[in-house]
C-alpha cells in the first residue's frame, strides 16, 4: 500500500515536471522591419507572426516591430547577428561588403517581369546567398517581394534615354547604382532615404527611384510630377533569423516557422501586385503623370548600361553572375 502511494507521488511529480518543461519551452522573439504598418510587408509580417504562433501551437510567440522602430536596416541586421534580435525582414544591402553576391540585385535591367524574379529568388542563386549568411550568425528563411524600382522626377516625362540627361536623381548609396545613373547621364546623388522628401520639396534634387507602393506610402505624389515605369532594378527583401535563436528551438518549431514564412511570402507578393495597380490610379488622381517607356527605348537604355554589368561582374563573382543569368534565361524560355 505504502509502495503504491509512493509510485503515485512519483508519477504526479513527473507529470508536474513535464508541465513545467513544456511551459519553459515556450519562447518569445522579436521581429524588426523598416516599413510603415500599412505597407504590404508589414501586413504580411503580421500574418507571419500569427501563423508562426498557430503552427507551433503557441510554442513560439513573435512580436513584430514596424516602421524601423528597432533601428536602421544595418542596425537590425547587426542585432540579428548578435542574437539580440531574433527576426528581421528587409534588404541585405548592408552586408554587401562581406557577402559580395548581394550586390547582384543592384545590377540594372536584368528582369523582364516578376515571374523571372520569383524563379531566381527560389532558385540556386538565392539559396547560395543564404548559405553565405550562416557564418555571419544568420539563417535565411525566405526571399520575398518588394517590387521593381521606377523613376520619378519633378521636371519632365522620361520616355527615352535622352530625357534622363542632367536630372539630379537621388540613388542608393552603393557603387552599382551610382555608376548606373551616371552612365545614363543623370547627376546621381547618394542620400539617406529619410532625407529624400525634404530634398525634393526644396528642389535640391529633381527625382528619385523606388518601387511604386513605396513611393506612394512616402507621399512622393506631393513633390513629384512624373513617374516613368522603367522597372530598372528589382529589390527583394529577405526574412532572416538569428542563428543563435534558430539553434535553440526544436526541429518541429523550425519547420512550422519555415511554413509560416513561405505563406507570408505569398501574401506579400499578392499585396504588392494589387498595390502597384492601386497606386498607379492614385498617382493619376493626385495629378502625377505616369508614363510607360516604349520597348525600343528600354532596349537603348539597357544597351547603355551593359558596361556597368561588365565592370561589377568580377567584383560580384563571374561564375555567380553566369549562374544568375542562366536562371533568368531558363525562366524566360519557359514563358
Please explain how this structure is put together:
The chain is α/β, with parallel strands linked by helices and 335 residues long. The protein has two domains: 2-145 and 236-275, D-Maltodextrin-Binding Protein, domain 2; 148-234 and 286-334, Bacterial extracellular solute-binding protein, family 7 (D-Maltodextrin-Binding Protein, domain 2, 3-Layer(aba) Sandwich), CATH 3.40.190. The chain is 50% helix and 18% strand. It has helices spanning 2-25, 40-55, 73-82, 114-121, 124-133, 175-183, 196-201, 212-217, 243-246, 251-285, 295-304, 306-316, 318-334, and strands at 27-32, 60-65, 87-90, 138-144, 148-153, 168-171, 187-190, 207-210, 226-234, 237-242, 289-292. The strands form two sheets. Strands 7-6-8-5-9-11 form a six-stranded mixed sheet, sandwiched between helices. The protein has a five-stranded mixed sheet with strand order 2-1-3-10-4, with helices on both faces. Strand 6, helix 6 and strand 7 form a beta-alpha-beta unit. Helix 2 runs antiparallel to helix 10 (251-285) and helix 4 (114-121) crosses helix 13 (318-334). The longest helix is centred in the last third of the chain and has 35 residues, at 251-285. It is globular, with a radius of gyration of 23 Å.
Amino acid at each position: 500500500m505504502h509502495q503504491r502511494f509512493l509510485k503515485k507521488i512519483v508519477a504526479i511529480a513527473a507529470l508536474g515536471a513535464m508541465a513545467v518543461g513544456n511551459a519553459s519551452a515556450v519562447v518569445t522573439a522579436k521581429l524588426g522591419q523598416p516599413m510603415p504598418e500599412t505597407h504590404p510587408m508589414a501586413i504580411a509580417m503580421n500574418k507571419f507572426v500569427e501563423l508562426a504562433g498557430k503552427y507551433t501551437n503557441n510554442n513560439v510567440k513573435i512580436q513584430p516591430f514596424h516602421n524601423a522602430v528597432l533601428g536602421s536596416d544595418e542596425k537590425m541586421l547587426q542585432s540579428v547577428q548578435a542574437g539580440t534580435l531574433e527576426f528581421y525582414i528587409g534588404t541585405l544591402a548592408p552586408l554587401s561588403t562581406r557577402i559580395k553576391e548581394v550586390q547582384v540585385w543592384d545590377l540594372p535591367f536584368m528582369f523582364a517581369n516578376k515571374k523571372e524574379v520569383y524563379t531566381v529568388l527560389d532558385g540556386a542563386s538565392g539559396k547560395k546567398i543564404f548559405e553565405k549568411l550562416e557564418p555571419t550568425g544568420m539563417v535565411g528563411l525566405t526571399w520575398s517581394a518588394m517590387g521593381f524600382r521606377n523613376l520619378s522626377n519633378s521636371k519632365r516625362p522620361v520616355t527615352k534615354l535622352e530625357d534622363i540627361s542632367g536630372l539630379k536623381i537621388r540613388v542608393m548609396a552603393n557603387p552599382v547604382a551610382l555608376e548606373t545613373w551616371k552612365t545614363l547621364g543623370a547627376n546621381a546623388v547618394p542620400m539617406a532615404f529619410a532625407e529624400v522628401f525634404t530634398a525634393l520639396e526644396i528642389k535640391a534634387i529633381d527625382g528619385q527611384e523606388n518601387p511604386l507602393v513605396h513611393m506612394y506610402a512616402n507621399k512622393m505624389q506631393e513633390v513629384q510630377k512624373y513617374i516613368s515605369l522603367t522597372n530598372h532594378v528589382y529589390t527583394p527583401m529577405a526574412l532572416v533569423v538569428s542563428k543563435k535563436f534558430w539553434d535553440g528551438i526544436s526541429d518541429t518549431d523550425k519547420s512550422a516557422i519555415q511554413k509560416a514564412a513561405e505563406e507570408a511570402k505569398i501574401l506579400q507578393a499578392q499585396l504588392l501586385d494589387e498595390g502597384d495597380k492601386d497606386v498607379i490610379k492614385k498617382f493619376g488622381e493626385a495629378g502625377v503623370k505616369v508614363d510607360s517607356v516604349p520597348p525600343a527605348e528600354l532596349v537603348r537604355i539597357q544597351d547603355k548600361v551593359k558596361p556597368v554589368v561588365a565592370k561589377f561582374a568580377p567584383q560580384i563573382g563571374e561564375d555567380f553572375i553566369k549562374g544568375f543569368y542562366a536562371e533568368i534565361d531558363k525562366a524566360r524560355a519557359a514563358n
